[in-house]
Design goal:
The longest helix is centred in the first third of the chain and has 21 residues, at 108-128. The two termini are 31 Å apart. α8 packs parallel to α9 (241-250). The protein folds into 2 domains: 9-129 and 359-374, Enolase-like, domain 1 (2-Layer Sandwich), CATH 3.30.390.10; 133-348, Enolase-like C-terminal domain (TIM Barrel, Alpha-Beta Barrel). The strands form 2 sheets. Strands 4, 5, 6, 7, 8, 9, 10, 11, 12 and 13 form a 10-stranded mixed beta sheet that branches. By secondary structure, it is α/β, with parallel strands linked by helices. It has helices spanning 28-31, 67-78, 89-99, 108-128, 132-136, 157-169, 184-198, 214-223, 241-250, 264-268, 281-284, 287-299, 310-318; strands at residues 9-25, 38-50, 55-63, 142-147, 174-178, 204-207, 232-233, 255-257, 276-277, 303-304, 326-328, 342-343, 346-348, 367-374. Helix content is 35%, strand content 21%. β2 and β3 (55-63) form a beta hairpin. It binds magnesium ion. The site of magnesium ion has 4 residues, from loops.
């Protein structure tokens, strides 16, 4: 005897939001004149409703440019979702890839699909009545976390130190500061001052946001070898896998990179080449492709430290064998009703089903545009 098992996607709502930052921030890309300060995060949301009455929420994001294109692409392919079984995530994802095949399998096209894919995983975990981490298979119910948002380059050193103290007092377990300024001596001065301020016991990372050449990165790495840094992040151009591999070989300090890469094949090149792989769910096209990267990284015994969007990554970090660091950046928190619990250096996986997130009422203030599709008879 067989039992009919299945549900169908009955509605899809896509939303475009611009979430302002309290203070615009600058990393090394601004210090070298390549970008302007970052003043907001643009977000593409996807809410999926099913015939059985379940709802899933997912989102993707961009900084500075790209969300209008993501939104346009999601609108074009989104109607293909109606009537599909939301539990068949691989099949649904593939159908959207084929619908947009002529614009490729990385970049804006798959970042648009990321919002849909995250909503499908959220929905599946809700159907199971489990937090997403548990649905995937968790190794822990909380994950070590470090703060990034207090260590940007526009902030004077005293402010960076004050923010670090506040983060640590608030239960954050590590501190990352930005480097990669045109004058490396300034980076070294700030880093030494922050190390002295927080003490030798606090895990400390630096992030150069791709602004060094290979020689400068090696010189910096040698200069800080005794500082016991957790890692040096993005010392080189994001696509210079070979340069990163050489640095990782030459230095004891671990080398981390991967956040800018927007497709699985690009990230796979880093596995075995660098010490810490840093995938980002929305940038790589969703949880489905992220899990491929994570499986390959695990197979190679690599460390993983996902980039940004802690609201999604806390679940994926809980489900990775070798404990990752989750990046604490609070910029998207106002978009959601719920807050993540952070204490004793750790971020706790929400005990609510799915991602454990819902859009806050005030999200309406930042809505730029939205659209909703409905299936027949609903
Ligand atoms: Mg970074």
């Amino acid at each position: 005897m067989t039992t009919a098992v299945g549900d169908a996607i009955a509605s899809v709502r896509l939303g475009r939001y611009a979430v302002p930052l309290a203070t615009p921030v600058s990393d090394a890309k601004v210090a070298t004149g390549r970008q302007r300060p970052l003043s907001r995060i643009d977000v593409l949301t996807c809410e999926i409703g099913t015939r059985d009455g379940l709802r899933g929420l997912g989102f993707s994001y961009t900084t500075r440019a790209g969300t209008p294109a993501q939104y346009a692409h999601a609108k074009e392919v989104g109607e293909h979702l109606l009537g599909q079984d939301p539990s068949d995530i691989g099949k649904v994802y593939e159908s959207l890839l084929w619908a947009g095949a002529s614009v490729g399998r990385s970049g804006v096209a798959t970042q648009a699909l990321a919002a849909v894919d995250v909503a499908l995983w959220d929905l599946k975990a809700k159907r199971a009545g489990l937090p997403l981490a548990k649905l995937l298979g968790a190794y822990r119910d909380s994950v070590r976390t470090y703060n990034t948002s207090g260590g940007y380059l526009q902030a004077p050193l005293d402010e960076v130190k004050e923010r670090a103290s506040r983060s640590l007092a608030g239960g954050i377990g590590g501190i990352k500061i930005k480097v990669g300024q045109p004058d490396m001596r300034e980076d070294l001065r700030r880093l030494a001052a922050v190390r002295e301020h927080v003490g030798d016991e606090v895990p400390l990372m630096v992030d150069a946001n791709q602004q060094w050449d290979r020689i400068s990165a090696l010189r910096f790495g040698r200069a800080v070898e005794e500082m016991n840094l957790v890692w040096i992040e993005e010392p080189l151009d994001a696509y210079d896998a070979e340069g990163h591999a050489r640095l990782a070989e030459a230095l004891d300090t671990p080398i981390a990179t991967g956040e800018m890469l927007t497709g699985v094949p690009d990230l796979v090149r880093l596995i075995g080449a660098v010490d810490v792989v840093q995938p980002d769910v929305p940038r790589v096209g969703g949880i489905t492709p992220y899990l491929k990267v994570a499986a390959l990284a695990d197979h190679a015994h690599a460390q993983v430290a996902p980039h940004f969007v802690m609201e999604i990554h806390v679940h994926l970090a809980a489900a990775y064998p070798r404990e990752p660091w989750v990046e604490h950046i609070e910029w998207l928190a106002p978009l959601f009703e719920e807050r993540l619990r952070i204490e004793d250096g750790r971020m706790h996986v929400p005990d609510r089903p799915g991602l454990g997130l819902s859009l806050a009422g005030r999200a309406r203030d930042w809505l730029i545009d939205d659209v909703e599709f409905h299936g027949p008879g609903r």
